[in-house]
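@channel sequence for tomorrow's demo:
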Amino acid sequence: MAKVGKKRTAANAKVDANQQYSLEDAMALVKKVNTTKFDASVDLHVRLGVDPRKADQALRGTVSLPHGTGKTKTVLVFCTPDKEEEAKAAGADYVGLDDLIAKVQGGWTDVDVVIAMPQVMAKVGRIGRTLGPRGLMPNPKTGTVTQDVGAAVADVKKGKISFRVDKYGIIHASIGRVSFSSDQLKDNANELLGTLMRMKPSTAKGIYVKSLTVASTMSPGLKVDPKFLR
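structure tokens (generated this afternoon):
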């Protein structure tokens, strides 16, 4: 059995495992129980009453967090030559087509987001087996297959994130860093939750938001009372 460090033991002591906190209290407490020396990510885990095996309940989408994520994302754009300058001007880190496809075929995937124009998707499809498992495959539903590559890059750089429900019906998303104020974390969480509420499938039965948990990297999870969403 792994030994629990003093910092984690102290953090656990501050958390009531049986309590469901208000969103406001949870965002304040998650900062206090952080045990890392670095600016850890704060993540929200939302368990939904959906069946991901059904196409209309396999939720995926994007949301622009009002305060960003606190992390500068590396963006790769596959585009035609006439769009390269637009992508670069918007802040894309890597721009091109055939040369970058070859690089990915060689095993390189050191990026956070991949954006592509519709015209080049036939070529990008060749590396789907590499991009797909890493969640990097461009998709129209997440706004990463678009003619307007400049705007797509700018949105990502400003704090637009993608999310998708996993096979257990859970959405996992970073909503900021422990250096954020509790109000900033709450604003970002509300933006994500509001988006999920608007996306509720008409075929989903019973309780839609079953549970909410917020946690920072390597720190205890805090249960959030989902009743405020109903």
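heads up for whoever presents: The chain has a mean pLDDT of 91.
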